[in-house]
C-alpha cells in the first residue's frame, strides 16, 4: 500500500495500538500527526470542549491537508471489579469520571470527524471501539457505554459524510500491548482465561491491528458504515 503524499491524524498514538497504527502509516509513506495527551507537537486533552477542533486545525495548518483520521484515543477509568449480581460491591457513581470518559471516548471522536471533514482531501475515518464493550463487558459502566456507542456513531457519520468520506469501525479484542504487560502478575489469570476461550488461542499483535486499520482506511473504496471485530474469535 503506497500512501505517499497522504496525511493522517492518529489520536492516542503514544503507545499500544495507536503507536502501531501510526508506525504502519509512516511505513506506507504517509505523513502522520501523532496525537498524545501531553507532550509532542500534537498534544491535546481531548476532554476539553474545544481541543478536538483545535487539534484538527493544527494538523491542517502544519500539513495543508488531512486524508485519514483514526479515532483511537480512549480514557479507561479503572474501578474495582465486582462479581455479577453483587450489588454491595458496585462502585459508586462518579459524575466527573463519567463525564470525562464520555468526553474523550465519544464526544471527541464526533468533534474530530466533523472538523476533519472540512478538509476537501479527507477520504476515510476509522473509529476504534471495543470488542468487549459489545458484550456489555469492560473496566467500568462509562467505558462500556462510551465504547458501545462507537458503532452507532460510525453508521451516523458514514451516512452524513458519504459519498466523499468513508467511515468504519474497528472493534479490537485483547492485544499484547505495553498496557497489558504493565498490569503485571495480578492480571495473568484474566489474561489466560481470555486466551483459553479464544479460538486462535493467543492475544492479537499490535501489527495485526494496524494492518486492519490500514485496510479500512485505504484498502477498499466501497466499505463504509461497517464494524469489523478483530479478536481471534473471542466473541463466538
Report on the structure:
There is one protein chain. With about 240 residues, the chain is of the alpha/beta class. It is built from 8 helices and 6 strands, in the order βαβαβαβααβαααβ. It has helices spanning about 15-25, 50-65, 95-115, 140-150, 150-160, 180, 190-195, 205-220; strands at about 5-10, 30-35, 70, 125-130, 165-170, 225-230. It has a 6-stranded parallel beta sheet with strand order 2-1-3-4-5-6, sandwiched between helices. Helix 3 (about 95-115) links the parallel strand 3 and strand 4 (about 125-130). Helix 1 (about 15-25) crosses helix 8. The longest helix has 22 residues, at about 95-115. The radius of gyration is 17 Å and the shape is globular. The mean pLDDT is about 90.
Outline the secondary-structure elements:
Layout: E1 7-10, H1 16-27, E2 31-34, H2 51-63, E3 68-71, H3 95-116, E4 124-128, H4 141-148, H5 150-161, E5 166-172, H6 178-182, H7 188-197, H8 206-219, E6 227-230
Parallel strand pairs: 1-2, 1-3, 3-4, 4-5, 5-6
Helix pairs in contact: 1-8, 2-3, 3-4
Amino acid at each position: 500500500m503506497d500512501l505517499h503524499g497522504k496525511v493522517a491524524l492518529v489520536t492516542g498514538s503514544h503507545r499500544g495500538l495507536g503507536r502501531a497504527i501510526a508506525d504502519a502509516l509512516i511505513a506506507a509513506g504517509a505523513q502522520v500527526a501523532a496525537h498524545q495527551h501531553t507532550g509532542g507537537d500534537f498534544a491535546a486533552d481531548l476532554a476539553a470542549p474545544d481541543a478536538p477542533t483545535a487539534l484538527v486545525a493544527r494538523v491542517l495548518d502544519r500539513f495543508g491537508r488531512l486524508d485519514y483520521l483514526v479515532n483511537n484515543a480512549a480514557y479507561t477509568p479503572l474501578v474495582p471489579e465486582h462479581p455479577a449480581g453483587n450489588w454491595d460491591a458496585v462502585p459508586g457513581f462518579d459524575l466527573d469520571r463519567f463525564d470525562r470518559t464520555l468526553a474523550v471516548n465519544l464526544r471527541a471522536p464526533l468533534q474530530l470527524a466533523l472538523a476533519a471533514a472540512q478538509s476537501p482531501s479527507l477520504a476515510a475515518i476509522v473509529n476504534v471501539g471495543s470488542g468487549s464493550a459489545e458484550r456489555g463487558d469492560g473496566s467500568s459502566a462509562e467505558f462500556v457505554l462510551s465504547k458501545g456507542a462507537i458503532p452507532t456513531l460510525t453508521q451516523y457519520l458514514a451516512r452524513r459524510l458519504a459519498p466523499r468520506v468513508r467511515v468504519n469501525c474497528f472493534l479490537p479484542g485483547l492485544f499484547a500491548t505495553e498496557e497489558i504487560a504493565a498490569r503485571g502478575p495480578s492480571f495473568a489469570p484474566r489474561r489466560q482465561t481470555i486466551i483459553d476461550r479464544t479460538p486462535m488461542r493467543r492475544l492479537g499483535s499490535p501489527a495485526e491491528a494496524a494492518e486492519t486499520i490500514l485496510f479500512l482506511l485505504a484498502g477498499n473504496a466501497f466499505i463504509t458504515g461497517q464494524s469489523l471485530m478483530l479478536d481471534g474469535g473471542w466473541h463466538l
